[in-house]
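Teaching note: in complex prediction, the entire set of molecules is handled at once rather than each chain in isolation. The prompt given to students was simply: 'Predict the structure of this complex.' The entities are:
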Amino acid sequence: MVSVRLLLLSAAPLLLCGCLGTQGGNVLVLPGEHSHWLNMRVILEELAERNHSVTVLVFTASPSIDYSKPERFGFKVYDVPFEKQDWLAVNDDFIKWWMYESQNASMLEVGLWIRDLMQKMNVLTLNTCKSMFNNEELLESLRQSKFDALLSDPMSPCSDLMADALGLPLIFSLRFSFGMVLERQCAQMPAPSSYVPSPELAYTDQMTFFERVHNFVMYTFLDVLTNVHFLTTMDPLYSEIKGRPTRFCEIMGKADIWLIRTYWDFEYPRPFLPNFKFVGGLHCKPAKPLSEAMEEFVQSSGDDGVVVFSLGSMVKNLTKERGNTIATALGQIPQKVLWRYSGEKPETLAPNTRVYKWIPQNDLLGHPKTKAFITHGGTNGLYEAIYHGVPMVGIPLFADQPVNIMHMKTKGAAVMMDFNKMTSKDLVDGLNSVINDPSYKENMMRLSSLHHDQPMKPLDTAVFWIEFVMRNKGAKHLRVESHNLSWYQYHCLDVAAALLSVVALIIIVSVKTCTFCFRKTKARQKTE
Amino acid sequence: MVSVRLLLLSAAPLLLCGCLGTQGGNVLVLPGEHSHWLNMRVILEELAERNHSVTVLVFTASPSIDYSKPERFGFKVYDVPFEKQDWLAVNDDFIKWWMYESQNASMLEVGLWIRDLMQKMNVLTLNTCKSMFNNEELLESLRQSKFDALLSDPMSPCSDLMADALGLPLIFSLRFSFGMVLERQCAQMPAPSSYVPSPELAYTDQMTFFERVHNFVMYTFLDVLTNVHFLTTMDPLYSEIKGRPTRFCEIMGKADIWLIRTYWDFEYPRPFLPNFKFVGGLHCKPAKPLSEAMEEFVQSSGDDGVVVFSLGSMVKNLTKERGNTIATALGQIPQKVLWRYSGEKPETLAPNTRVYKWIPQNDLLGHPKTKAFITHGGTNGLYEAIYHGVPMVGIPLFADQPVNIMHMKTKGAAVMMDFNKMTSKDLVDGLNSVINDPSYKENMMRLSSLHHDQPMKPLDTAVFWIEFVMRNKGAKHLRVESHNLSWYQYHCLDVAAALLSVVALIIIVSVKTCTFCFRKTKARQKTE
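The expected output is the structure of the full assembly:
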């Protein structure tokens, strides 16, 4: 069995130019999957462009990373005791359940489903971690590679533990974690629940009293839930691998830099820490020309323009009924529609709509004829829409998509659809609104202007901090001291207890003294 | 009486080039005094350089702004009912008391002195504010000027109220406020007292239990003290000027951008907000050549090099005894010394020491022969030392100086002296340490390297955000929603109270129901 396959397919040109290890750094990357990978590979390409050597550590069953394809960076592949299909099956279950069943499920069913999903994911996580850390050949090869830093997506299991094991500074790339638990508990970011809504709730930073109660309860609930998960699953795993009692958050919290894949064009302002760098939209770039056939179709739309439609790379198929509802709606608008969809062609597909297995989404969104973007609301597509200033019709499906679309809706740059309940008329109305009501375009252009009006481009910011970490062997000067405090010390509960004790002592002594003096005086009066 | 004197002495070249009002913006500036002014004028020069029109609003009694001197920006001067001498007298009282008397004062004396000082300063503040807002001619002229933004130092009285009155976006330039009250209460920056030391205490971010108690008590004390000041002095003044009940913090908190005059090379990492931009050392630049005479003196030091010595622009004189103690010490080191000092020449002044009324401090600190910097620890000089990597002997006198030097000491880049207690031997030992123990130089070079290793130069960052505010008529997308919450809402006390009430209600109802059922059962048993 070849447990370590070194595929430095594409590092060859770099080696030829003699730049590796001389001017450039040496980065190990443990990426996330799906859209996370698409975002991270933009960083990796830029790192390679700047003469850094980049090695992506990937497991054989990776559902979305094609390590056989030549790239500007190299791959190191390790075996895991499961197949790509196992991972995809969990994924598909997750998506189908969320898209079609979660709406009508009872609380009990939701709870059981979450438990079931977490168990399945835990199996994959544990197997992936152990496959890395039990593979002495892999570890030795990584040690020999003398990396300068490790860049990872927290979605990649045990990537922080790998940085710890190799003694490397760590850079995370993150949209947000479940309940922002990693940011709040592991990175120590303050998030007052009074105005920082949990990303699981579709609230803005302006909450009513009952929304604030809901938010407070949600944070507490998620804290309990994730801490149980940490205590029962992650801490034992980390302790086992490290060979001493280890907390998951302790290792996660060692990250030098947290690259957050959003910015204040999209996020509600909130407190953060010096090692948080906001790099939302780093993958966006000016549109390139379309293929001749596509350009011809786009131009044929005349003054009405086109609508770009994609539900992302993870949704391959729709039910017949949903597909037809959507296709019927698309047939009723005067625009031409370019729909990325790899499922069965809906029967009601109208002549104005063309279905593609893949579309050059960024180039289409940047085309002057594009009037609107129908999207599931993934962060990558959302930022491409912000970058090019295209108003959106959001049909959120799962994960961060509902909260993403809700952000854009409250900023007046999108209308939001309910995937399961929307009728053809709803979609037509939504499209007509964002296309014909100029406020949507204006609001989107305002966000676009904020996005472009930053001191530095997001990709440059991301690369700067990765290079900084390599140059300086970390960024400890940006890491808050609260990592070394317990939760009760952090919240000054010990200080409050001490001060209250002193006050109580003073009161007791005063009362006792007064009582004693009063009795003495009374006794003396009596004897007199 | 000429109540508004428009001195656009130096804007002439800009007007000639035809750039004003076309490409560039129009900035109104209400600066601070002394070192604050020195720092801010660097920004103003850069703004002028970038074709912006800059008008500095200054009162006739300004102790440190020479508005008769030609500058690249213009001045608008208004009368106040006090003289420069009145301001300087309060200043001198403050400095002398802090330097010579505060050490031996009892708590009562300190308290009375603070009260006395605040009363004197209040008189100046109130008079300055009212002179601006009662001067209709001035206000009308400012209104007519159609500024795009107001840049101010919070030290400048009512500058935020002026921005409000003129409807201008506001940018603050700030080192820190007393107890960080403005940042915490008015700007809503979270500062957990468990690891963010109050700047009044010489603690690091690593505090013992008792230091944390002290810090907690200090924050509470300063909050009470300043809130009493706000309630009794500032709120009534602001309400009177605005003609409706107005809170000081409400107006202060409207600031779009807070330019903080430090960075993480110097500060301990802590949470902050999206509209906080750290621009420490923006005034620093590469050294220019010295005058011929000074260069000759510096070169005459040979391999021993030179020591640069300044206690800042505010300390004009020392007592004879302190002067002689210092001069004696300087005479005992092999280095040559350049001492900025405008007081009486000490009798013990040795031939290796030259006294200057003014020195080109930045150029001297950037000279390769410079081995050490003896400083009071003002932020400007401290950043010049960081910029050029010169280790320091700190003799802090007042204000932020003790905490500044303490920061540098804990980072291993400075030794700290007690101005009143130090002997000549102490100063000689201190100088020998920072010059001969290589760790001081190494630590300072590490800070210097962090300072230079930023995505953008501090001055460019400051100017970017000022220009951003002008381009976008503010920076509301960076302003947290907590400004619209009361303190109990912010801390979720209403939510906690509601949840506790629900829990209490459930318990009471349960207990009552159980008791009722129990009684019923018992009664039934009895009747049976």
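Point out the following to students. Residues 493-527 of chain B form the longest helix (35 residues). DSSP finds 19 helices and 14 strands in chain B.
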